[in-house]
Amino acid sequence: MDHPPQRLPWWEAALLGVLALAVALAAGHLVAGFIASNASPYLAVGNAAIDLTPVELKDFAVRTFGTYDKLVLLSGMALVLVAVSAAAGIASRRRPLPGIVVITMFGLAGLVAVYERPDLPPVALLAPTASLVAGVGTFAGLHRLARTHAAASTNHDSDRAAVSRRTVLLAGAGVAVGAGAAGAGGQLLAGTRDAASSRAAIGRLIPARMAPAIPADADFAKLGTPTFLTANRDFYRVDTALSVPQVRTEDWSLRLHGMVGNEMRYRYTDIRNRLLVERTVTMTCVSNEVGGTYVSTTNFIGVDLADLLRESGIQPGAEQLFSTSVDGWTSGSPLTAALDPSRGAMLAIGMNGEPLPIEHGFPARLVIPGLYGYVSATKWVVDLEVTTWKARQAYWLKRGWAQQAPIKTESRIDAPKGFDTVPAGTVRIAGIAWAQHTGIDRVEVRLDNKTWQTATLSTEVGPNTWRMWWTEFTVTPGTHQVTCRAVDKSGYTQTDQRAGTVPDGATGWHSITFTTR
Ligand SMILES: Nc1nc2c(c(=O)[nH]1)N[C@H]1C(S)=C(S)[C@@H](COP(=O)(O)O)O[C@H]1N2
Ligand SMILES: [Mo]
């Protein structure tokens, strides 16, 4: 019965590799469904890839693909995995070993990635283990079946062969269907453990101290500016989390420790039962380009962060509030800013009356007005350590961004949009400006590099929020350029010097070109 080694047709070998990959991913996804959706090896590897990506590439990805950067990463990973698996299959036309080696390496990568995630319990390692076992098992099993068939058919006894082509195809199809079902099952299971139901159980949050109502003339939305408050679903989103951390309120707690007299641990109900305040804050990302969209405003609801810190008894010499998210991301904020009553830093649990949306940090996040998000706004926050700058280095600081990052005074033109065509005659220009913690004093606008004209400002809501502006020019038919610049309440005029986002935020004036007819 000893057949000479037979080679599988290349396409069959390639298919074997891809099928084994599909089974491995689906098995991992299914097991992760019982534990935590982020234990899925595919997602864990993707998350690890984000943390390992050099900062220039990450910046490029965010600039080029915007919110789709994660989708691009997942699709790119899928393409690479399929290609490598197919190649491993083809390399295994005679013997299964090359395929087994490659699938084992994928499995090990999944194990390492899950192991490295700080938000996952050790039992989560079962998910990549399931991937490894199922992937290798599938590959070896299908390979044996296909080889038996190939051997039988070259011996010209295909009609008596123990394994017919039909059997091989059926086995392959069965495996594919099984993988699909397992993957979908994992997805469904993970859904039941996700934070959505926990969030839904909270209901509306009513602060004891409401923010003042937003005056009607606080925005010029009718002229093309954003609405003063950003709807939760439109609030810009920036984070390194490939899959949104799912934290249920009953599982959440916040540890406050380090250079403090009494270490504290708060449960969700402890926070909810404290005096809830509401503050209107405009948040901005350091990755916002001049004219960019990473700026939004909301009514945050939460507790006063300075109160929590003071109650813990901060020791002399402490400089940094080092915060950690459930997914391991970290941020370092100056303690002076967190404690400054005029800034009103918060541990926030709500936005615009609702519990925080899951992608914006549910159950709780930090908000320190006036600082870029990466040094002030940790989402899914679970740990606050009072420390020194020397003792701890946060995620983006280690990757070349600045330690201190106050938001820079900026302004943006929203209407007309760049390259719009509008009727000649009187043209209205409208936009926004922000200088959080300082306040906007004036916005100046000029047409075609002529003299600056002072714009009409919206009613001020507070120094920590954006301000809208508008003005108008008489414009002849043709192509024109309009430029804006803000002056803040410290007397500083927004610089025209262009700087990129790294290391501490972009600068320069926003200009757009439009045509009149
Ligand atoms: N856990 C976690 N928190 C995070 C980040 C992150 O990557 N992970 N990104 C920060 C950055 S860079 C910004 S600008 C703000 C954005 O908050 P948003 O997504 O709610 O707008 O969150 C901050 N908090
Ligand atoms: Mo950011």
From TrEMBL:
Domain Moybdenum cofactor oxidoreductase dimerisation: residue ranges: 415-499
Signal peptide per UniProt: none
InterPro entries: Ig_E-set, MoCF_OxRdtse_dimer, OxRdtase_Mopterin-bd_dom, OxRdtase_Mopterin-bd_sf
SUPFAM superfamilies: E set domains, Oxidoreductase molybdopterin-binding domain
Residue ranges of the TM segments: 70-90, 97-115, 127-146, 167-190
Alphabetically ordered keywords of this record: Membrane, Transmembrane, Transmembrane helix
Location of the Oxidoreductase molybdopterin-binding domain: 242-396
Pfam families tied to this protein: Mo-co_dimer (PF03404), Oxidored_molyb (PF00174)
Protein name: Molybdopterin-dependent oxidoreductase
Native organism taxonomy: Bacteria, Bacillati, Actinomycetota, Actinomycetes, Pseudonocardiales
